[in-house]
Amino acid sequence: MAGELIGPYNQLKAIEGWALNAYQESVKKSPNVDEILENLRKINLQARKLEWRGKGLDDLPKQVGEDLKKKVTQLRAAVVVLRDIKKDKELSSASKRTIRMLFSLATETVKIVFDLKKRYYHDQLEKFERKIGLPK
Is-contact 15 84, C-beta < 8 A? Predict the structure, then answer.
């Protein structure tokens, strides 16, 4: 299972980084809209790849896999909502709020995978300790 988590975890960390960049740019006095749009494009592309590759998420415990699929869909939906930035070439208050929410959502998604990885490695360590006979 750890192998299946490495790819999605790295992809979600990249999404989190781009969401942070978009957020940081959006709070500037004169934000660079093109840079924000580029980060949103990258988020959308990576989230689509995760959705396409979602079959790997099927190997995860059912509830975790469902939660991840839902979060990835929410990430993409947030990016689609922000498409009005492209035509307006400026950030409205609503767009800034959505970018803030996008970053928060990306962070939550990474945390789900991180907690799952931590649990998996903890279980593996316990199995190993039992195997070699270490006392608890």
Answer: no
Number of neighbouring beta carbons within 10 Å of residue 55: 8
Query: Please, what's the b/e burial string for 67-76 (b: 16 or more CB within 10 A of its CB; e: otherwise)?
Result: bbbebbebbb
Of the candidates 53, 40, 55, 50, the one whose C-alpha atom is nearest the C-alpha of residue 11 is 50
Buried b / exposed e across 26-52, counting CB within 10 Å, b at 16+?
A: beeeebebeebbebbebbbebbeebee
pLDDT in tens, the chain (136 residues): 444 555 777 888 899 999 999 999 999 999 999 999 999 999 999 888 887 765 556 666 677 777 888 888 888 888 888 877 877 777 888 888 899 999 999 998 888 888 877 777 667 667 766 666 666 6
Helix (H, G, I), strand (E, B), or coil: what is residue 12?
Answer: helix
Specify the pTM: 0.76
What is the rounded CA–CA span in Å between residue 57 and residue 64? 8
3 state SS for 22-60:
HHHHHCCCCCCHHHHHHHHHHHHHHHHHHHHHHHHHHHC
